[in-house]
Design a protein that fits this description.
Radius of gyration: 18 Å
Number of helices: 6
Helix content: 55-70%
Distance between the termini: 61 Å
Order of helices and strands: HHHHHH
Shape: elongated
Strand content: under 5%
Structural class: mainly alpha
Length: 101
């Protein structure tokens, strides 16, 4: 059974790899001090796949051509907020300018 947390910190080269992956797929820039985001958001994927660490996840991402694991990583790293589109104070001016009543 895999441990509850990855057993090692993210290696610097793997951190850069993850930064590049997330940026190339989403345009999101994750600075050098965002290790905690990768650790908190990717640990569930590490557990699900039965891996020992985020470094193992990086090795898997680099070794496979299957896009599903990469999609999971990108999905985990994005904040999927939709309240912007539901807030009338924000959307009303756009509606009035493109669809005048």
């Amino acid at each position: 059974m895999p441990s509850q947390t990855p057993i090692s910190e993210i290696h610097p080269e793997n951190y850069r790899f993850l930064q590049t992956q997330v940026y190339s797929q989403t345009g999101i820039v994750l600075e050098a001090d965002k290790h905690y985001l990768f650790e908190s958001r990717l640990t569930p994927i590490v557990r699900q796949l039965g891996l020992g660490s985020i470094n193992d996840l990086c090795a898997l991402l680099q070794a496979t051509t299957e896009p599903e694991v990469g999609r999971q990583v990108v999905e985990a790293m994005t904040t999927n907020e939709t309240y912007f589109f539901r807030d009338p104070a924000i959307t009303r001016p756009y509606g009035l300018s493109c669809c005048p009543g």
